[in-house]
Specification:
It is a single chain. With about 150 residues, the chain is of the alpha/beta class. The protein has 2 domains: about 50 residues, no CATH class; about 80 residues, Rossmann fold, CATH 3.40.50. Helix content is about 40%, strand content about 15%. It is built from 7 helices and 5 strands. The strands form 2 sheets. Strands 3-4-5 form a 3-stranded parallel beta sheet, sandwiched between helices. It has a two-stranded parallel sheet with strand order 1-2. Helix 6 links the parallel strand 4 and strand 5. The longest helix is centred in the middle third of the chain and has 11 residues. It is elongated. It starts with 14 loop residues before the first helix and ends with a helix. The relative contact order is 0.12.
């Protein structure tokens, strides 16, 4: 296996920060980009690169995100029995899909359940859904989410 090195890493793991870091490093104007992403990825990174003078931005969906068709019965039973302490959300799509699967009374089903968000984009979506996260990760990845959960004991 080849050792790869990272040439640039933004301070936070959101498209806005990556675009800002690339611009600040002088790595956008007249450069060509290949963005390999999910089919539901926000267009913001592509838009920001184009606005900053990129010569070409190919935004290619290399995988599809499909929502679950239903929640497992044992999860619904655990929610109804108030046996769930935390629900973690790692993306806006997981939040949206989860509440759709819970149904129109999702807020009541989540009453008393603590909510953890991986980052500010997901938090914004949760708030739009009427759910206020108990914690949000400081570092917007799984390690950061776990750290936020552990700190909130």
């Amino acid at each position: 296996m080849t050792n790869a090195s990272v040439d640039l890493c933004p301070e936070s793991f959101v498209a806005e920060a990556l675009a800002d870091a690339l611009v600040a490093a002088g790595e956008v104007k007249s450069k060509r980009f290949l963005l390999l992403r999910a089919d539901i990825a926000r267009p913001l990174l592509r838009e920001r690169l184009e606005q900053a003078g990129a010569a070409q931005v190919n935004d290619v969906a290399i995988y599809e995100t499909h929502p679950a068709k239903q929640l497992p019965p044992h999860l619904m039973e655990a929610l109804d029995a108030k046996q769930v302490t935390w629900v973690t959300f790692t993306s806006s799509s997981t939040a949206t899909n989860f509440v759709q699967l819970l149904g129109p009374d999702y807020r009541a089903k989540l009453s008393g359940v603590r909510v953890a968000s991986i980052g500010p984009i997901t938090t914004s979506t949760l708030k739009e859904l009427g759910l206020t996260p108990t914690v949000q990760a400081d570092t917007f990845n799984i390690d950061g989410l776990v750290a936020a959960l552990l700190a909130a004991k």
